């Protein structure tokens, strides 16, 4: 009898979407674990929804944020959800156009400050819980990258981890314990890229296939546990 493959839904930004190589942090993991990956992540996506006044380029004001990605995903529950959501908020929004914010005092959607990063993140967690209440979900704290000031990365990553603890969502902490930090120029040169035509010598943001295989896949495999069928 043929056993149906389990499904994995990925939500987030270009590190899951795959940028120009179309290889993101979940692709190798899904292949090794025999998971069918449905990738809803979008380059440039944020937790904070974009507004027409946020960006000079109109196209950047219509990127679906994580709440929209989630709303547009199928109603059928997956076997597993993995998502990210710190990079573009830290790059473009937090402490620039919007405040970091703080966790709400309770779990009510009406309590979330949707004009802050924390409130938008919590809204995503609440919507995910409501839509897929029994699907295991994991947040990936992505690696350090020199495109964003270090203090701001620390701040946004700490808030994401705090909110995940509140909602009992496990964090796969590449940021703190993944052994990949592309502030190191040798790591950036070997394991990241800017253009799909030249898959190395990047600025440290988007890892190439070797980078994700070497640094992300082992931690994903070690920490993600699927319930028996």
| CATH-assigned homologous superfamily | SGNH hydrolase
**Outline, from the CA principal axes?**
globular
* CATH fold category name: Rossmann fold
> What class would the helix/strand composition place it in?
alpha/beta
Largest beta sheet: what is the strand line-up?
2-1-3-4-5
Low-confidence stretches: none
Largest sheet: 5 strands, parallel
Q: Provide the helix percentage.
A: 25-40%
Write down the Rg: 17 Å
Kindly provide the name of the CATH class. Alpha Beta
Q: What is the tally of beta strands?
A: 7
GO molecular function: hydrolase activity
InterPro entries: SGNH_hydro, SGNH_hydro_sf
Pfam family, one: Lipase_GDSL_2
Keywords: Hydrolase
Structure notes:
Residues 11-214 form the SGNH hydrolase-type esterase domain. Pfam families: Lipase_GDSL_2. This is SGNH/GDSL hydrolase family protein. The protein has 229 residues and is of the alpha/beta class. It has one domain: SGNH hydrolase (Rossmann fold). The chain is 35% helix and 12% strand. The radius of gyration is 17 Å and the shape is globular.
